[in-house]
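Why show two proteins at once? Because comparison is the fastest way to build intuition. When a single record is shown, students tend to memorize it. When two are placed side by side, the eye starts asking what differs. So, the first record is below.
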Amino acid sequence: MKAALAILWASCAVLHGAEPSPIVIAHRGASGYLPEHTLAAKALAYAQGADYLEQDLVLTKDGVPIVQHDVTLDSTTDVASRFPGRQRANGSFYAIDFTLAEIRQLRVLERFNPKTGKAVYPGRFPAGVGEFRINTFEEEIIFIQGLNKSTGRKVGIYPEVKLAGWHRQEGQDLSKAMLAVLARYGYATKSDLCYVQCFEYTELQRLRNELGWKGRLVFLSGGKTPLIDTDDGLKGIAKVVDGIGPALSAIAEGRKPTGLVARAQAVGLKVHPYTFRIEALPKGFTDGKDYHRFLMQEAKVDGLFTDFPDVGR
């Protein structure tokens, strides 16, 4: 009953134009239950009450943005058996070396180690079961907007520009391709339900200044950097981005907040850390709900990336 009321509250909030706080961000969809970034995983996350659904973006050979966490296809598809011999010298199969028509032939699997064939998370969806496919960014937006229409909810999107510099070295511009899709489906300003995230701060500057993106931007950080470790750094990036996405380890040490959330919020930045997984709880927490309560109520984050949206809700 409590979970149902929470979902109802979140739905009412977005229906009346107010974004709930903290927000629940479905990390690659409900990836704790279904293969990541599949439409099935997104549909489940939607049903579990997520406020935003994440889309990691990479490009195909013919320049189409697809929803895929890695620039390689090795760990989440059957590419090795479907297209033997198409790997690069380092042994990996890169999405950018395949056309969309070829990508559509791949079967998406629960994430596994391509060297051993073993599942990364053995307790999750069974390896090799089901018929799941990679979808394009456009297809996913159509899917989410369709659910918004049929349910009356307003769930947002949270695309990530993956390795923008690397894509340009390969002769393609991921940011431009993404912005074209966003514009086509009505995501253009900070009032739209969209956050664009990236680990490359120079690309975020490019999105804001050169490419003219007027929507919300989030700087992702996987380790120590003066851009978020110092007050001057936070003040500086706040001129470009609207929020930060640090690793959970930067938010708290055990049950003691590090102070990063408060410092970032003091300069007007939202804080959306990653990634909540029930298989990787820090010491001192009894279960996933206990850890989630701590992050929301004591660490006071503005949102949280989670593989388990239902726990957040």
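Second record. Ask yourself what differs from the first in the token line.
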Amino acid sequence: MSWARHRFPLALAAGLDAAGLVGIAVAVNGLRRSNLAEQQLLLLVLVLLYLSLGWLFGSYTLLKRSRLRWTQLLLRLGVTSAASLTAGALLGWLLRVPPDIGLLHRGSLIPLFSLVTIWSALVRLGLRQGERLSPLPAWQIVALPQEIEAITREWRRSSNNAPAPTILRFSPTLWATDGPSAAIALSTGVAAEANVQQFCQEVVGQGHPVLGLAALAEQELQRIPPHWVANQWLLFSSRIDGEHSTIQQQLKRFADVVISVLLLLITSPILALAALMIRAQDGGAVIYRQQRSGLLGQPFAVLKLRTMVPQAETGSALWATEQDHRITPIGQWLRRTRLDELPQLINVLRGEMSLIGPRPERPELEGQLEAEIPNYRLRHWVRPGLSGWAQVNMPYTSSVEDSELKLSYDLYYLRNAGLWLDLLILAKTIKIVLKAAGR
């Protein structure tokens, strides 16, 4: 699971944050002569608050950046600690804690989260220093001359700051004159060369791994560019949703139904308020129905809260852009919070969609996309989703180039779909909604 490997430093930072907070709480409570044994549940709540707010305000994703800036580090950790302190003080006020419960008193919370901020900063700096001292094995990509520019461009457009590999021009004597330093990846063009088997034999004989370019992108970029899949599309065939579903697919369907019903009940007041605002704005329809391509390309009507002016499209289908004049003021807010997608929970209950999966595209646009993007129809092999790996890693698509990037994330999901990846996508979607970071 490459997505888990990439997030191990974040999980390690969270564990060290929790350990540090507990240790500092023990020390602060000892100075105040308060019995911490009777406050274990409150301490757990403070730990969960700090970790959750750190996740929300991005104090862990700093570790994924190519450079760790002091200003960003102190700002995000400061906001996290201030919010945690405020939440802890509010909790103490609501619970009317007695004097012998000192953990939620101001005299404990202020030194606690002040020291935790320093500890968390040291944790992140230490982890970054550890990365420098123990760098990952260097990858070398052996490619044909005409492929080098395209490969470089794919690494530059990656959103996860993956370290750029060294790209070498393929030569029959490359392994003899400039042998691999750690690991080798072969481009699709090189793999078609007649003497590539001898090259691989020599490299493996030296104890170095050899991967295809698509496999390297899956491992390092957490996406698979469709051009690099070439004729290996059968690698995705095990993910086809068919009539005879597996136990995992049945469990996913059960979760889809249960969670969708709960979300509809919880968000019904928000949906009602949004419907009133849309209606009051221009008197138009509240729900917008649009044809989309579903499982195995079957069309269905997707449901959305209307975010554009009535009759936004009078001719051919148009891409939505960042500064689209057709989007209403209320629609802008609905899109940023992704609340316009909530009616699609009904599509999930109908079985036309899942909570997690590739976002369904409009049939009118797919003709051009299939003509220009290889292996585009592979995304139809699984049920479309309310949110997906592409949606939590990139903004809305507004061009063929964006759709190709989106497909690369969809192909990664096809290869790696499972319970834990679905939970990660769900958590990242919640974060986008809470921060109103959608578009």
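One difference worth noting in the second protein: The CA atoms of residues 100 and 199 lie 72 Å apart.
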